[in-house]
Amino acid sequence: MNCNELREYYELFAIGVAEEPERSEIRAHLNRKCEVCMAGVKKALEMAAMVGSAADAAQPSSKLRQRILASAGVETRGFRWTPVWAMATALSLAGAVYFGIQARRDAGETQRIRAEMGLQNDEMRAQGAEITRLTEAFAILNGPDTKEAAFGGARPRPPRGKVFLNPTQGVLLIASNLPPAPLGKLYEMWVIPRGGRPVAAGMFQSQPDGSAMHVRRGAVDVESTNAVAVTVENQAGADQPTSEPLIVAAVPSGASPR
Amino acid sequence: MLLPILLAIQAIRGDRDLIERLQRRDPQALAELYDRFGRLVYSLILRVVRDTAIAEDLVQETFLRVWNRSQGLDAERGSVGPWLLAVARNRAIDYLRSAAGRERNAVEFEETDHPALFCDMEPDILRSDKTRRVRAAMEKLAPNYREVMHLAYFEGLSQSEMAKRMGQPLGTVKTWVRTALKSLRDELGVAVTS
Ligand SMILES: [Zn+2]
User: What total number of domains does chain B contain?
Assistant: First the structure.
């Protein structure tokens, strides 16, 4: 059979219900790397994924996560947080794009970022206009081509962002979709050590377009940091978070930057 | 400035970063994978097997399988979500078939959830707004078309098995399947290569 005769069967093949002779024919085309059939089957797999994702949403038991991590031989880290914080973590992990410098494989890139961070901070002091230039980056972050993970929280437009931790330079947080905190309030960043209480890491405000960048300069023990979070607090700041976090970035454990 | 560009690129590389970490067997990557897709995977499996305890077992099997086979995924262009759902569906259908004493065919699962096939896919196809569109498209189908789609996608029936189940001639079922798939494709704007 030629590719055109097989077109109608890509979807059935993709979900494993194609019958003979079409199944063997498509298989043969794939085996000889037929580009037409390869592309067609991929499209069909895409559609299968979409149909699969449309099943009525159901919630597995909360123990399942731990069970899976344990069965994979993965040690679960103790989140000694109140349920609200734990819940917020689960929710924002689904949507927030987070990133820890120590997870980077490319040592050269780490060096470059470290250099950039120093440069960035110096330049920021010199010219506050740098923020405006960052909006270009946020425009890209918000662009239609930007990959966006599904978010399970109540907010329709969750804040997105990244956190960079550097043992000698400090912590950099960037966020978008973070509307400016209301009058009299500001955002406060928290560095949360494993098994410890959140440590205040400075106040900041976001731009009218919802973008924000906040740097906590100074050494940080990256290895023992569990997460970085952001809450809304009174302008004066708080010693401990008083509201639900809007951003929680879990810091991957393991290899530190080389 | 390099930094903004760097940051933007990393945001786009969200999947890539996750895949690379899975391949390095970074434990946090498995946790993140579960946090991103656990509910979706569970919902799909539950839809197929209709038993919460069995569904959770199969979710576990799915994630372990993906965790152990992530090396086959293309780190640059791989689509981890669609792959995970394919593995999940195959696990669930395989369970359903064995429970019903129906024919099981491991080979076809190997070839339809092979990680290498899951690359160059549209980003964001699993976003909730897309999911709503799929649901709406399914609901727009005439009842007989909807039924064949459900039997194929969620019960893993072949056209011959559907014909038997629905008490319809095979030719009729084939026409229904063809029409249903076409309208679903049109509705979802899935471009079919010519
Ligand atoms: Zn072909």
Answer: 2
